[in-house]
Amino acid sequence: MGLFADKYPEVPLAEKERLWAEVKADSRFPAYLYGCYECGICVASCPSARFYDFSPRKIAQAAAREDLELIYEQMNDDVWNCSQCFSCNRCPRQNSPGGLITIIREVAVKNGLKSAKHALEGYGRVIYKIMGTGTQVSPDMLQPDAFPDWGPQVRDVSAELDLWRRALPPETLHTTSTGWQVDEKTIIELYLIWHHTNVMDMIAEVDEGLFMILNDVMEEKLEEAGYEI
Amino acid sequence: MTIPYVAVNTKSSRKFERQAEYAPDDFHAHLFELEHEGEWIVQRVPEPYVEVMTKYGRTKKIPMELTWHHKSCGQCGHIPGYSTAIFWINRKLGFKYIDPTDQTSCTAWNYYASATSNAAAQAGVGMRNFAAAYETGYFPLIHCGTSYGHYKEMREQLLHHEDIRHQVRDVMKKLGKPMVMPEEIVHYSEWIHAVRDRIAAQQTRDFSKIAVAIHPACHYYKLVQEDAIYDPDIYGGQRTATVSGTVMALGAEVRDYSTWFDCCGFGFRHILVQRDFTRSFATRRKIQVMMDEANPDVVISHDTGCVTTLDKSQFVGKAHGLNVGVPVMSDAQFAALAMGAHPYRVCQLHWHSTDYKPLLEKMGIDHEAAWAEFQEDLQKLKSGEKQYLSWEDVG
After folding, report:
1. Among the listed residues A160, A163, A179, A143, the one whose alpha carbon sits nearest the alpha carbon of residue B387
2. Is the backbone of residue A122 left (phi > 0), alpha (psi -120 to 50) or beta?
């Protein structure tokens, strides 16, 4: 039993241990954790700590202590609050709580944890955009109902989108559904990278519907290009 | 607690000294060793280059031209005057460059947001882009701060983890691409910093009355921090010299504020699906503090996410009665304006949310006349007289 009450007693300890072992097995792990002075410098510089009940120090501490219950709780309840700004890298012990969180999130996704699925609800369209087109955000995402908090200017962009894109001097920026013009061959190469590095398996774990859509799109293009996956 | 303006702007008595004892080993020895062993090709920084000093004193080469522009998702998608200004400055300085279509995103925005990827995939994406640059003979210049930070992390991983390196090599072999690592990973703001005197030499607008608050981008100097540019003559070396050095070279006044180290609140996932966090942090910890302590005419940053976040978050802050309402743009747009760029045709400020018109007036720009000129351009596009606005059209 760790220092904190186990919030997930129904999850067997062996399962928590298995997930933690996956985190530790990541080759980046040793470079992200060296120990902790408990100085709190990471917390003082952390934007998420000012907004959420979140502490990068606790992340480093739990990992250093190998507190399985707390790590499991953090994997489900905390890691998605992190801003991934890496302000915590100013740690005098050279820890990277943000780096640990990157690995923990990856394990959460790879294992299809319910909390990861929940955290990524509403985000699937962005994953589709980046994996399918090679650019993360597109001009046509700027819709007033998607960004009402960005003010009336979004409405102007949306209304004039095609015209305003054509008024850009760089030839690569006349696109509306991608950030810039990406060659077909380049997209095929990107799809091959996703397939050969098990990223598609991760998508299947966290969002089956998205996986099916992406897989259909990719398979068709890859087959046309003479690749069989 | 509000920190008095005078206290914030009082010069620190601390003297910047490069702490070479904390410097990590220069990665170049290992980089070239792996090249010697046939693991990859190292793409050399093309001449002519400028040498700059990094945090702990390593010299970094910044290419002046023959650059392959690794564009940024958010810049191109939502604030396209950012990328346009970078290209425009290159053209004005007479530098050769490539704006490639054989380029994908680094995909790191998605990686830091959703973790739906892994180290090998991320390195595969980066190395594919580096190979594409190498095949053209031009050297990669990275527009996005996150791409820049992520690629430096990727380089660390590839240098030190044989398993990841070999996994990526197998993928590259399937793509028929060479394994190429650039001699330096260079951010566009480093390039602007390196050529800032040339930019200043072509300055046509007086910026001496412009007060600037600078937001240094987290992923520029917090990820692989030893690679960021520091200069004791710029800000006493207390923070990265990029952006500050450029703004100072253009004669504007850099004003300090107490939360300069804080992130903008972008959050990667948060900016897209949890903006209550982003808005609150951007307005309360950044913009409002800048306004209270420094009262700048403009906020300048050097990354996609920061410019987007600090610009777009102010609308709601205003509705809540916060002390916000300051334009936000990149160092590239600021430098281009100094060189006489058109605020709409080149800097595309109509894509920004905050009110930039008082700033343009202070810069001596007739924004009403400029907008009328831009409307004429749009009319030509609408009527079919022109299909696109070209570089020749924008001056």
Report:
1. A163
2. left
Residue B77 vs residues A17, B129, B164: alpha-carbon distances, Å: 43, 19, 31
Read off the pLDDT of residues A164-195 as tens digits, 9 standing for 90 and up: 999 999 999 999 999 999 999 999 999 999 99
Residue A120, helix vs strand vs coil: coil
Q: Which of A80, A157, A169 sits opposite B390 (nearest CB)?
A: A169
- Domains in chain B (CATH in brackets) are 30-188 (1.20.1050.140), 205-372 (3.40.50.11810)
Give me the amino acid identity at B130: F
Nearest to B74 by CA among A59, A139, A206: A139
pLDDT of residue B230: 95
CA–CA separation, B244 and B241 (whole Å):
6
The answer to whether B175 contacts A190, with C-beta atoms less than 8 Å apart, is no
Cα(A20)–Cα(A8) distance, rounded to whole angstroms?
A: 15
Q: Which residue has the tokens 């953090």?
A: A74
The predicted structure's pLDDT at residue B16: 74
Distance of CA B362 to the CA centre of its chain: 24
Residue A41 tokens read as 């410098």
- Return d(Cα B254, Cα B249) in angstroms, integer: 11
Binding-face residues of B in 365-384 toward A, CB within 8 A? 374, 377-378, 381-382
pLDDT tens across B101-129, in order? Answer: 999 999 999 999 999 999 999 999 999 99
Amino acid at B362: K
Task: Look up tokens 């090249």; give the residue.
Answer: B35
Read off the amino acid at residue B386. Answer: K
Domain covering A13-118, topology:
Fumarate Reductase Iron-sulfur Protein; Chain B, domain 2 (1.10.1060)
Give the angle subtended at the CA of A69 by the CAs of A65 and A70, to the nearest 5°: 65
Q: Where are the domains of chain A?
A: 13-118, 124-221
Q: Which residues of B touch A139 (CB under 8 A)?
A: 77-78, 80
Q: Give the H/E segment covering residue A77.
A: helix A68-77
Q: Let me know: does B260 contact B244? Beta carbons within 8 Å.
A: no
Peptide linkage before B48 cis (omega within 30 of 0):
yes
The set of residues, in sequence order, having a beta carbon less than 8 Å from that of A47 and lying 6+ positions away, is: A83, A85, A87, B262, B263, B265, B267, B277, B281, B285
**pLDDT greater than 50 at residue A46:** yes
Q: Which residue in B has a C-alpha nearest to residue A128's C-alpha?
A: B110
Give helix B81-92 / helix B331-338 axis angle, nearest 10°: 50
